[in-house]
Amino acid sequence: MAIRRILVPIRGDGKGEKVLDHALVLARRYKAHIEAVHCRPRPEEIIPFGFIPPSVREQLARSGDNLAAAEEAEIKAMFDSYVAARKLAVADAGSSPLGKVTISFAVERGKQAAIVSNRERLADIVAVAKPDRGLGRNTLEAALLNTGSLVLMCPPSEPGAVGEHLAIAWNGSREAAHVVALAHEMLREAGKVTVLTVAGGKDQLSGADLVAYLADHSVKADHQEINATGGIGKALLSAARAAGADTLLMGAYGSSRGSELVFGGVTQYVVDNSDMPVLMAH
What is the distance between the alpha carbons of residues 138 and 128, in angstroms, rounded to a whole number? Predict the structure, then answer.
């Protein structure tokens, strides 16, 4: 899949700039458009109305709307400052020129998770902040469960390279194969690719099988078997760092229960503990 549009949802949690930084690294690499979207909450999403008189409810609604307006103004000011400092070209999301790094800003009213679920269907990658004590988890889950795009989970640190050296967490599963398929362009453009598998695993499709498949698509990859006695998630992150990878590529393992994604242990560990960007798909 070609990387041409990167969706970045922004709200007043102080993490917007770091997520934009990670998205910008990718946008510069692929000459892509960054679509920054502020998800402005409705008053009832800020203030729990409950069973209160209509007159009080009206006052609370005005108060909530004022809070949302203040947050929107603050985020727009941050965005304008960010764009000016980096001398980025602003273009409409629907008419951004090919072969040029551009950025746009839009505001939509509603819960961020719901807006991401809708907007991401026409994005190649959605970049979201790493959840912090559960904050942001709904957005990450919505991005993974409700769309078929790549999801870039961005740590709070300054980004270095993103996608220059990709480490693939491979276990032969449908999710792992799906994320590899979505990341074809990134894998072809990467300077180095390392396939990580667990020693003694019972995968029907081995790491060697994946290396051969990637070679058919002009991607040269190394293969490393890792010892996972301390836990697969921990071993994957340690091996990726030791190999010099800047980004981990993995399927989001879990099962859907209604609208909720229940992460498997490996994915949950990586989400909680990764200090590098993680590209995922479910």
Answer: 11
Burial label for 114, CB within 10 Å (0-12, 13-18, 19+), is: middle
SS3 86: helix
Report the SS3 class of residue 9: strand
3 state SS of 18 = helix
Digit-coded pLDDT (tens) for 226-262: 998 889 999 999 999 999 999 999 998 655 444 444 4
* Closest alpha carbon to 250 in 177, 188, 169: 169
Q: Name all domains of the chain by residue range, CATH numbers in brackets.
A: 5-154 (3.40.50.620), 165-281 (3.40.50.620)
φ, ψ dihedrals at 273, nearest 5°:
-120, -10
- The 3-state DSSP class for residue 248 equals strand
Look up the pTM and report it. Answer: 0.89
CA distance 246 to 276: 6
Query: Which residues have a Cβ under 8 Å from the Cβ of 147 and sit 6 or more positions away?
Result: 117, 120, 121, 123, 126
Cα within 13 Å of Cα(233), Cβ side: 17
Angstrom CA distances, 136 to 219, 245, 277, stand at 34, 25, 15
